[in-house]
What does this fold into?
Amino acid sequence: MDFEDIKDKINSLYDACLESTTPFHVKIDVCMVPEELAIMVMTTTNIDISNHVITIDNYGIIHTLQQHSNPITEAKRGQVAIEREDFIRWLEVVLYPDEVKHLGDTKRTNLPLLQFEKIIENRKIVVKEVRTVQSTKKQKVSRLVFHTMYKFKKPN
It folds into this structure.
């Protein structure tokens, strides 16, 4: 996993999300879920994410920008607006979380929704990921896909 290459790809995808006026779908497969993370998630949530690829796509970035990037709206919620750099920090939150929770299943797709939390630079960053299941018939890959992200000022 070359972090600089991943960072460049995420920044390019972020720019495309801001600039594109036509629908598109691009996903970046970052890495396989490390064994330590798979064990932590299994222990705390009883969900198996071993052999899953950690992925971010433009759908998650666009959703996050639309829902969590306005400073005024986020301040009213007691949150801090998401910025470009947070999409780079996303990977640290997912790979090395302080806490992992199973929030239930998504409404539309009925897939398990996992929440990863980590305190970075006096901010509590929360990332939600959706686990997709492997289909052997279609030879699809099992993924842990970025869904949304928001952050709070860390309470003293």
User: Anything to note?
Assistant: The two ends are 35 Å apart (CA to CA). The longest strand covers residues 143-153.
